[in-house]
């Protein structure tokens, strides 16, 4: 018997890759990497705990199996299975744009 706020592993949502998406205009891999870096550099300033942001970044950059283990071990509550909306155990909300989670369908080759 646990406390009312405890979660069972069976209750944890299984994460998955985001559905295919397109950026508003075709972008290169270098531009995508720059967008991701800018997001991760500024994300902690929007609230929440740095260690959760770090865990979410590690999960976003990992394969699905490892990402699942990362979010579970960090105590991240997954609202959307594609990780676009998550919460920490204190109720802080973390929103991740799809561009940090997967590549757009209109990614173009760098010159």
TrEMBL record:
<dbReference type="InterPro" id="IPR039869">
    <property type="entry name" value="UBTD1/2"/>
</dbReference>
<feature type="domain" description="DC-UbP/UBTD2 N-terminal">
    <location>
        <begin position="13"/>
        <end position="110"/>
    </location>
</feature>
<protein>
    <submittedName>
        <fullName>Ubiquitin domain-containing 1-like</fullName>
    </submittedName>
</protein>
<feature type="compositionally biased region" description="Basic and acidic residues">
    <location>
        <begin position="1"/>
        <end position="13"/>
    </location>
</feature>
<dbReference type="InterPro" id="IPR038169">
    <property type="entry name" value="DC-UbP/UBTD2_N_sf"/>
</dbReference>
<feature type="region of interest" description="Disordered">
    <location>
        <begin position="1"/>
        <end position="27"/>
    </location>
</feature>
<dbReference type="Pfam" id="PF16455">
    <property type="entry name" value="UBD"/>
</dbReference>
<dbReference type="InterPro" id="IPR032752">
    <property type="entry name" value="DC-UbP/UBTD2_N"/>
</dbReference>
